[in-house]
């Protein structure tokens, strides 16, 4: 069984768009979903931020004992070459919120089975949203990170301490040159591009 964790319910819904036969249970108050077409998938929403990601990952992993975990979600591009719909795998995940001269980095314990399905490179795990293209450019220059999201560091810290296999994979929903999207525009992009994560998940099911 593989555990798929999403920061937001809207991301999970976009990922499962068009898939039927959904069932829902709860694990210590966390809603857990499965679908008939993919009996080895278990899907859950962790909530926003590193702490929520770490706690939900710990609780669900202890209860379910998955053979692998994936953190799937949206991200803003920092690399100006990325476009909406690109898929990026964190290698490494970089923890930005300490603002240290040498930010903590988290590498994959196990290479992804089919890396050609995604871009790979640094993903910055921040403590705030960044909408200003000028600040995105500054972060790209400082860290060389392809994208920015929130939850990665909590997920990667769990993987490091537990010795579990897992990957953070992000869909670019906002380009480096763009400012803040409306919620409607963000949901529209997720609905279009999140189903493309399904083949990536299937590739991880070693």
Explain how this protein is built:
This protein is of the alpha/beta class. The protein has a single domain (about 1-205), classed as Nucleoside phosphorylase domain (Rossmann fold). The protein is about 30% helix and about 30% strand. It has helices at about 10-15, 50-65, 135-145, 150-160, 185-195, 195-205; strands at about 1-5, 20-25, 30-35, 40-45, 70-75, 85-95, 105, 120-125, 145-150, 165-175. Strand 3 (about 30-35) and strand 4 (about 40-45) form a beta hairpin. Helix 2 (about 50-65) packs parallel to helix 4. The chain starts with a strand and ends with a helix. The mean pLDDT is about 95.
List keywords for this structure.
single chain; 206 residues; alpha/beta; Rossmann fold; five-stranded mixed barrel
CATH class: Alpha Beta
Mean of residue pLDDT values:
93
Give the proportion of residues in helices: 25-40%
Spatial extent as radius of gyration: 16 Å
What is the CATH superfamily? Nucleoside phosphorylase domain
Look at the helices and sheets and give the structural class. alpha/beta
N-to-C span: 10 Å
Short description:
The chain is of the alpha/beta class. 30% of the residues lie in helices and 32% in strands.
SSE arrangement:
Layout (H helix, E strand, L loop, with lengths): L1 E5 L2 H7 L6 E6 L2 E6 L2 E8 L4 H15 L3 E10 L9 E9 L9 E2 L12 E7 L7 H11 L3 E3 L2 H11 L3 E9 L8 H11 L3 H7 L3
Parallel strand pairs: 1-4, 1-5, 5-10, 6-8, 8-9
Antiparallel strand pairs: 2-3, 3-4, 5-9, 6-7, 6-10
Helix pairs in contact: 1-5, 2-4
């Amino acid at each position: 069984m593989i555990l798929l964790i999403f920061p937001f319910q809207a991301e999970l819904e976009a990922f499962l768009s068009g898939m039927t036969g959904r069932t829902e249970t709860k694990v210590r108050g966390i809603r857990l979903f499965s679908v008939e077409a993919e009996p080895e998938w278990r899907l859950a929403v962790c909530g926003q931020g590193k702490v929520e990601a770490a706690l939900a990952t710990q609780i669900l992993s202890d209860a379910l004992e998955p053979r692998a975990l994936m953190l799937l979600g949206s991200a803003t591009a920092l690399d100006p070459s990325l476009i909406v719909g690109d898929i990026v795998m964190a290698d490494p995940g970089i923890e930005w919120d300490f603002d240290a001269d040498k930010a903590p980095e988290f590498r994959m314990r196990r290479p992804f089975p089919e890396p050609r399905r995604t871009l790979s490179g640094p993903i910055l795990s921040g403590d705030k949203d960044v909408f200003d293209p000028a600040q995105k450019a500054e972060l790209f220059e400082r860290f060389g990170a392809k994208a920015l999201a929130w939850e990665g560091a909590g997920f990667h810290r769990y993987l490091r301490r537990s010795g579990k296999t897992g990957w953070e994979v992000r869909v670019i929903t906002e380009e480096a040159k763009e400012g803040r999207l409306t919620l409607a525009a963000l949901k529209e992009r997720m609905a279009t591009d999140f189903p493309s994560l399904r083949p990536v998940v299937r590739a991880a099911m070693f």
